[in-house]
Amino acid sequence: MFEFEFMRHAFLGCTLVSVLAGTVGWFLSLRRQAFAAHALSHIGFSGAAGAVWLGVSPLFGMIAFSLLAGLAIGSEGEGRGKIPPQRDSTIGLVLAASLGLGTWFLHEANGASSMATTLLFGDVLGIDTPTLFILAGVTALCLLGLVFLGRPLLFSSLTPEVARARGVPVRLTSLGFMAVAALACSACAEVSGALLAFSLMIGPAATALRLGLCPAMGLLVSVLLALVLSWGGLMLSWITDIPIPFWIGLGAGIFYGLANLWTRLRTN
By C-alpha distance, which of 157, 164, 189, 167 is closest to 61? Predict the structure, then answer.
């Protein structure tokens, strides 16, 4: 399969996205913000559809919409260490409105059903060299952001009240992290589409957290599982001609189920 350039591009793209998804997804799961990741990827669909309407790259539109949504979610912050009770309702309403907006964008662009399918389910086999450079830039930017945010982010995620008392800028940290998460969701959508980016972002991370690993090992396992899902999905898709997002979603569920079983057997 590596004789074909599009497969080499696909594997490189999956590698970049998986490293990013495993890292960012671990923090999202730790902070119990899985629904935010789900919403950001769907909101990105509207941006991609808008970009199609304007005649520019869908990836740029997805990044723009996801980033704006991430900043809006992060701006709510954790008031005195508590997640605002209306946050999920607000995210849900924005999500519903954005999906409607995306449908309208595609209608105005006279987009065919094939374009909608590509935006929703991804087209990893269509990744070209410019897209690879964009994904590499997004990955580098997000990982660099996590280097600066890592310690205060972990501190404020585990004990927000103590972090606030120690002078950690909890609200600013949350804002910065949601911007990183938005960019990561946009990158993941290139591999598994807007609908299933959630599975690559949260599946490996939830499995690592379920195993009860320390932060360093949890991040490593989350990244490795994301790589296994994306690489395995590509190879199984090559063999079976079944779309890659199917294998990623199925594999994420299997990994979490096995981790749950292992945890139960170990504690009994």
Answer: 189
Structural contact between residues 233 and 244, judged by C-beta atoms closer than 8 angstroms: yes
What's the pTM value of the predicted model, to 2 decimals? Answer: 0.79
What distances in angstroms separate CA 159 from CA 1, 119, 209, one per listed residue?
48, 38, 17
Number of independent structural domains in the chain: 1
pLDDT digits 0-9 by tens, 12-24: 988 988 898 899 9
| Other beta carbons less than 10 A from residue 200's beta carbon | 37
Find the radius of gyration of the CA atoms of the chain. Answer: 18
**Alpha-carbon span 219 to 204, nearest angstrom:** 10
Range of the domain at 216: 5-267
For 77-92, how does the pLDDT look when each residue is reduced to its tens digit (9 = 90+)?
554 444 554 566 666 6
Query: Looking up tokens 């997640």, which residue turns up?
Result: 83
Mean of the pLDDT values across residues 126-137?
Answer: 84
What pLDDT score does 101 carry? Answer: 74
Cβ atoms 181, 138 nearer than 8 A: no
**CATH number for 19:** 1.10.3470.10
Find out whether 205 and 222 touch, Cβ atoms under 8 Å. yes
Distance CA 202, CA 28 (A): 8
